[in-house]
Amino acid sequence: MDINDEDDQYLELPGLIELSQYGGNFDRYLEAVYEIFVEEFVRRKPKFRGFRLALKKYPVTDGKEATFWHMTSEGEDEEHRTPDLRRLERIKWPSFIINNSEHPYLRVWENTRGTKTNVLIMHEDESYVVILRKGNGYLLPWTAYVIEHNWRRKKFIKEYEEYI
Protein backbone atom coordinates (compact mmCIF):
# COMPACT_ATOMS: atom_id res chain seq x y z
CA MET A 1 0.00 0.00 0.00
CA ASP A 2 1.44 3.38 -0.98
CA ILE A 3 0.00 6.23 1.02
CA ASN A 4 1.49 9.71 0.73
CA ASP A 5 0.11 11.18 3.95
CA GLU A 6 2.74 10.39 6.61
CA ASP A 7 0.07 10.14 9.34
CA ASP A 8 -1.56 7.29 7.44
CA GLN A 9 1.65 5.46 6.47
CA TYR A 10 0.77 1.78 6.32
CA LEU A 11 2.48 -0.52 8.83
CA GLU A 12 3.58 -3.78 7.17
CA LEU A 13 3.19 -6.74 9.53
CA PRO A 14 5.41 -9.86 9.77
CA GLY A 15 4.53 -12.85 7.60
CA LEU A 16 2.13 -15.55 8.73
CA ILE A 17 3.29 -18.82 10.28
CA GLU A 18 1.14 -21.42 8.54
CA LEU A 19 0.27 -24.98 9.43
CA SER A 20 1.26 -26.06 5.90
CA GLN A 21 4.86 -25.01 6.69
CA TYR A 22 4.86 -27.91 9.18
CA GLY A 23 3.41 -30.48 6.81
CA GLY A 24 -0.03 -30.16 8.40
CA ASN A 25 1.32 -31.66 11.65
CA PHE A 26 -0.60 -29.67 14.26
CA ASP A 27 1.51 -30.78 17.24
CA ARG A 28 4.76 -29.68 15.53
CA TYR A 29 3.05 -26.47 14.44
CA LEU A 30 1.79 -25.66 17.93
CA GLU A 31 5.28 -26.21 19.40
CA ALA A 32 6.84 -23.96 16.72
CA VAL A 33 4.27 -21.23 17.37
CA TYR A 34 4.88 -21.55 21.10
CA GLU A 35 8.64 -21.20 20.56
CA ILE A 36 8.00 -17.94 18.67
CA PHE A 37 5.79 -16.76 21.54
CA VAL A 38 8.56 -17.57 24.07
CA GLU A 39 11.10 -15.68 21.98
CA GLU A 40 8.85 -12.64 21.56
CA PHE A 41 7.25 -12.45 25.03
CA VAL A 42 9.53 -14.26 27.47
CA ARG A 43 13.06 -13.67 26.16
CA ARG A 44 12.70 -10.32 24.37
CA LYS A 45 9.72 -8.89 26.27
CA PRO A 46 7.88 -6.34 24.12
CA LYS A 47 7.72 -2.71 25.17
CA PHE A 48 4.65 -0.53 24.98
CA ARG A 49 5.88 3.03 24.50
CA GLY A 50 9.08 2.29 26.39
CA PHE A 51 7.37 0.36 29.19
CA ARG A 52 8.23 -3.36 29.50
CA LEU A 53 5.29 -5.71 29.81
CA ALA A 54 4.77 -8.42 32.41
CA LEU A 55 3.29 -11.79 31.42
CA LYS A 56 0.20 -13.60 32.71
CA LYS A 57 1.67 -17.02 33.35
CA TYR A 58 -1.11 -18.76 35.27
CA PRO A 59 -2.93 -20.95 34.76
CA VAL A 60 -0.23 -22.91 32.94
CA THR A 61 -1.90 -25.46 30.66
CA ASP A 62 0.12 -28.14 28.84
CA GLY A 63 3.26 -26.30 29.95
CA LYS A 64 2.21 -23.06 28.25
CA GLU A 65 1.39 -19.70 29.85
CA ALA A 66 -2.13 -18.28 29.99
CA THR A 67 -1.16 -15.40 27.70
CA PHE A 68 -0.09 -17.84 25.00
CA TRP A 69 -3.49 -19.54 25.08
CA HIS A 70 -5.33 -16.19 25.03
CA MET A 71 -3.41 -15.16 21.92
CA THR A 72 -3.82 -18.45 20.05
CA SER A 73 -7.21 -19.85 21.03
CA GLU A 74 -10.74 -18.74 21.76
CA GLY A 75 -13.41 -19.43 24.33
CA GLU A 76 -14.63 -18.12 27.66
CA ASP A 77 -13.72 -21.22 29.68
CA GLU A 78 -9.99 -21.20 30.52
CA GLU A 79 -9.93 -25.00 30.70
CA HIS A 80 -11.54 -25.60 27.32
CA ARG A 81 -10.28 -23.01 24.85
CA THR A 82 -10.24 -23.98 21.16
CA PRO A 83 -7.10 -23.38 19.04
CA ASP A 84 -7.72 -20.72 16.39
CA LEU A 85 -5.61 -21.06 13.23
CA ARG A 86 -6.01 -17.36 12.40
CA ARG A 87 -4.57 -16.43 15.81
CA LEU A 88 -1.83 -19.05 15.60
CA GLU A 89 -0.76 -17.87 12.12
CA ARG A 90 -0.39 -14.30 13.41
CA ILE A 91 1.73 -15.10 16.50
CA LYS A 92 4.43 -12.66 15.36
CA TRP A 93 1.96 -9.78 15.12
CA PRO A 94 1.17 -8.97 18.78
CA SER A 95 4.72 -8.18 19.92
CA PHE A 96 5.45 -6.35 16.65
CA ILE A 97 2.35 -4.20 17.06
CA ILE A 98 3.10 -3.54 20.75
CA ASN A 99 6.70 -2.55 19.95
CA ASN A 100 5.48 -0.25 17.16
CA SER A 101 2.46 1.19 19.00
CA GLU A 102 3.60 4.76 18.31
CA HIS A 103 3.44 4.20 14.55
CA PRO A 104 0.95 6.75 13.17
CA TYR A 105 -0.98 4.06 11.30
CA LEU A 106 -2.10 2.21 14.43
CA ARG A 107 -5.10 3.25 16.50
CA VAL A 108 -4.36 3.17 20.25
CA TRP A 109 -6.91 3.83 22.98
CA GLU A 110 -8.15 2.69 26.38
CA ASN A 111 -11.44 1.15 27.37
CA THR A 112 -12.99 -0.28 30.52
CA ARG A 113 -14.66 -3.68 30.76
CA GLY A 114 -16.18 -4.21 34.18
CA THR A 115 -13.51 -3.07 36.62
CA LYS A 116 -10.61 -3.68 34.20
CA THR A 117 -8.90 -1.04 32.07
CA ASN A 118 -7.43 -2.12 28.75
CA VAL A 119 -5.16 -0.56 26.17
CA LEU A 120 -6.19 -1.53 22.64
CA ILE A 121 -3.95 -1.30 19.60
CA MET A 122 -5.72 -1.83 16.28
CA HIS A 123 -4.30 -2.38 12.80
CA GLU A 124 -7.38 -1.36 10.86
CA ASP A 125 -6.56 -2.76 7.39
CA GLU A 126 -5.80 -6.18 8.84
CA SER A 127 -8.81 -5.98 11.22
CA TYR A 128 -6.50 -7.04 14.03
CA VAL A 129 -6.44 -5.90 17.64
CA VAL A 130 -4.00 -6.40 20.48
CA ILE A 131 -5.34 -5.91 23.99
CA LEU A 132 -3.16 -5.06 26.98
CA ARG A 133 -4.64 -5.25 30.49
CA LYS A 134 -3.64 -2.51 32.93
CA GLY A 135 -2.62 -3.58 36.41
CA ASN A 136 -1.35 -1.60 39.38
CA GLY A 137 1.89 -0.25 37.89
CA TYR A 138 2.18 -2.81 35.09
CA LEU A 139 0.69 -3.91 31.76
CA LEU A 140 -0.05 -7.47 30.66
CA PRO A 141 -0.42 -8.60 27.05
CA TRP A 142 -3.94 -10.00 27.38
CA THR A 143 -5.09 -11.21 23.99
CA ALA A 144 -4.92 -10.51 20.26
CA TYR A 145 -7.21 -11.53 17.44
CA VAL A 146 -8.64 -10.89 14.01
CA ILE A 147 -11.82 -8.82 14.28
CA GLU A 148 -14.15 -11.13 12.38
CA HIS A 149 -17.41 -9.19 12.53
CA ASN A 150 -17.91 -5.83 10.88
CA TRP A 151 -20.16 -4.68 13.74
CA ARG A 152 -17.32 -5.24 16.22
CA ARG A 153 -14.84 -3.44 13.97
CA LYS A 154 -17.21 -0.46 13.77
CA LYS A 155 -17.67 -0.58 17.55
CA PHE A 156 -13.89 -0.44 18.06
CA ILE A 157 -13.53 2.46 15.61
CA LYS A 158 -16.35 4.36 17.36
CA GLU A 159 -14.78 3.66 20.76
CA TYR A 160 -11.42 4.93 19.46
CA GLU A 161 -12.97 8.09 17.99
CA GLU A 162 -14.79 8.81 21.25
CA TYR A 163 -11.58 8.23 23.21
CA ILE A 164 -9.53 10.71 21.17
Describe the structure.
- This protein has 164 residues and is α+β, with helices and mostly antiparallel strands.
- The protein has one domain (14-163).
- It is 31% helix and 23% strand.
- The chain has helices at 26-43, 66-72, 85-89, 93-99, 150-163, and strands at 47-48, 51-52, 73-74, 82-83, 107-113, 116-123, 128-134, 139-146.
- The protein has a four-stranded antiparallel β-sheet, with helices on both faces.
- A hairpin with a 4-residue loop joins strand 7 and strand 8 (139-146).
- It is globular.
- Residues 1-5 have low confidence and may be disordered.
| Spans of at least 5 consecutive residues with low confidence | 1-5
Strand order of the largest sheet: 5-6-7-8
> How is the biggest beta sheet arranged?
4 strands, antiparallel
Give average pLDDT, whole number.
92
Strand content: 15-25%
Radius of gyration: 16 Å
Order of helices and strands: HEEHEEHHEEEEH
Please tally the β strands and state the result: 8
**Outline type:** globular
Q: Please estimate the helix content.
A: 25-40%
Estimated structural class: alpha+beta
Number of helices: 5
Give the CA-CA distance, first to last residue: 26 Å
Question: What number of domains?
Answer: 1
Question: Summary?
Answer:
With 164 residues, the chain is α+β, with helices and mostly antiparallel strands. The chain has helices at residues 26-43, 66-72, 85-89, 93-99, 150-163, and strands spanning 47-48, 51-52, 73-74, 82-83, 107-113, 116-123, 128-134, 139-146.
